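hey m, so remember when u said the tokens were messed up on ur end? i reran from scratch. heres the input so u can diff it against urs
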Amino acid sequence: MSIVWSKRKGLSTRSRATRIGALPLTSMIDVVFLLLIFFLVTSNFAQQERELPSALQTEGGGVRASDLQPQIVEIRLLDGSPVFVMGERAVRTRADLQSLLSQLPKDPGVAVKSDSDVPISAVAAALQAARDAGFAKRSYVPQNAP
């Protein structure tokens, strides 16, 4: 309750129910003004659609090195001796593998896979052939025994 001076009755008391219609709008106007400023400031930093770069490559037209898969060299035993297999081509010596690898793109790298019964010297020979062919990225992926 609050005490208010009235011309008719002199001092009178008003209940809160009669004061509900009078909201303080000053703080609400301040909040709306601050929100307006916020949205104006943040809208300036958004790029317009006409300025966004295209996802298609128009110049160069080539494939990026990160899009290429590494060359896979599988080592298998055939008649007790290791055979280096790349896709459908199979070679028996490290020199042949090196000449085959030197014709391929170097950026994606080489992954050497071997069966569990292949000697480690054959794996080392394949990794050395990849290094001699100019591949900077070389990795060895052992396969589990069946």
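this time it looks ok to me. The mean pLDDT is 77. if urs says something different then somethings off w ur setup not the seq
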